[in-house]
């Protein structure tokens, strides 16, 4: 199947099948689109929020794994260290749950898709297959549901909101974001600025979030004398810390 999915769209995943059998799941929505028909903002948003070393690692982020282990030893909050490649492998090929057998298979499929598919195909499958809401799978279905537009037209702010929901998509709604989601969206947007760009696909540039402000017209010359200039002390600017992470403060779903 790894070779087949290198070229053909993934029609369904084990999680889609499970959700379809759940009577509480609304009508399933899943629309596969090419990576070239997804706004550049969406890959950038998920790289910034989920896996900022996606383009350079070979499936596993050893630094994130080390940090997660150190935090666990200190008795801190449990944090995930799965890369986008790992999430894609387990979403497409494996059943939900936690076991050592599943972890071993996840590692196997992660290495395989990194070698066979490459980064662009992994991102394409990821953005088309992951759960983004109740009965909603893939960014095209999410974009139509939450913003009434195609994935090609997503703005940076909208892409960041979708990414903000990913750790717990069944409890978070990008169409009606909570205060926590807005805070997380802001952190993701800051990280997107730091990452800069993700050289994947040739899709649409991110749409502009708002119309530019009108250029102010110069005031008419006045005959009144100008007041003497005053010296104003500059106020400190908020800067993004050197090591910013978008840690999840809410409880995530147990299924991965």
Automatic annotation (TrEMBL):
Keywords: Cell inner membrane, Cell membrane, Cell shape, Cell wall biogenesis/degradation, Glycosyltransferase, Membrane, Peptidoglycan synthesis, Transferase, Transmembrane, Transmembrane helix
Listed EC numbers: 2.4.99.28
Compositionally biased region (Acidic residues): 245-256
Gene Ontology terms describing biological process: cell wall organization; peptidoglycan biosynthetic process; regulation of cell shape
Main location group: membrane
Region (Disordered): 203-256
Pfam families per UniProt: Transgly (PF00912)
InterPro entries for this protein: Glyco_trans_51, Lysozyme-like_dom_sf, PBP_transglycosylase, Pep_trsgly
Record-annotated Glycosyl transferase family domain positions: 27-192
A molecular-function term among this protein's GO annotations: peptidoglycan glycosyltransferase activity
Catalytic activity, reaction form: [GlcNAc-(1->4)-Mur2Ac(oyl-L-Ala-gamma-D-Glu-L-Lys-D-Ala-D-Ala)](n)-di-trans,octa-cis-undecaprenyl diphosphate + beta-D-GlcNAc-(1->4)-Mur2Ac(oyl-L-Ala-gamma-D-Glu-L-Lys-D-Ala-D-Ala)-di-trans,octa-cis-undecaprenyl diphosphate = [GlcNAc-(1->4)-Mur2Ac(oyl-L-Ala-gamma-D-Glu-L-Lys-D-Ala-D-Ala)](n+1)-di-trans,octa-cis-undecaprenyl diphosphate + di-trans,octa-cis-undecaprenyl diphosphate + H(+)
GO cellular component term, pick one: plasma membrane
Pathway: Cell wall biogenesis; peptidoglycan biosynthesis
Compositionally biased spans, kind Low complexity: 210-225
Domain of life: Bacteria
Subcellular location: Cell membrane
Family annotation (Gene3D superfamilies): Biosynthetic peptidoglycan transglycosylase-like (1.10.3810.10)
Membrane topology: Single-pass membrane protein
Family that this chain belongs to: Belongs to the glycosyltransferase 51 family.
Stated role: Peptidoglycan polymerase that catalyzes glycan chain elongation from lipid-linked precursors.
Protein name (database record): Biosynthetic peptidoglycan transglycosylase
Organism name: Tannerella sp. oral taxon BU063 isolate Cell 8/11
Gene: mtgA
């Amino acid at each position: 199947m790894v070779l087949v999915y290198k070229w053909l769209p993934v029609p369904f995943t084990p999680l889609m099948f499970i959700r379809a059998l759940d009577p509480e799941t609304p009508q399933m929505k899943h629309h596969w689109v090419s990576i070239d028909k997804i706004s550049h903002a969406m890959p950038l948003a998920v790289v910034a929020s989920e896996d900022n070393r996606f383009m350079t690692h070979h499936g596993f982020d050893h630094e994130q794994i080390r940090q997660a282990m150190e935090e666990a030893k200190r008795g801190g909050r449990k944090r995930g260290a799965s890369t986008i490649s790992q999430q894609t492998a387990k979403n497409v090929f494996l059943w939900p749950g936690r076991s050592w057998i599943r972890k071993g298979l996840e590692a196997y499929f992660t290495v395989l898709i990194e070698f066979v598919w490459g980064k662009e195909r992994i991102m394409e499958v990821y953005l088309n297959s992951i759960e983004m809401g109740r009965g909603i799978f893939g960014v095209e279905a999410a974009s139509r549901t939450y913003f009434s537009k195609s994935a090609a037209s997503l703005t940076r702010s909208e892409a960041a909101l979708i990414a903000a929901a990913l750790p717990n998509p069944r409890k978070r709604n990008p169409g009606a974001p909570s205060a926590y989601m807005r805070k997380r969206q802001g952190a993701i947007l800051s990280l997107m600025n730091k990452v800069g760009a993700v050289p994947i696909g040739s899709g649409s540039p991110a749409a502009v979030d708002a119309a530019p402000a009108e250029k102010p017209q110069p005031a008419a010359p006045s005959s009144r004398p100008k007041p003497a200039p005053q010296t104003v002390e500059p106020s400190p600017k908020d800067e993004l810390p050197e090591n910013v992470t978008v840690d999840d403060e809410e409880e995530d779903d147990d299924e991965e």
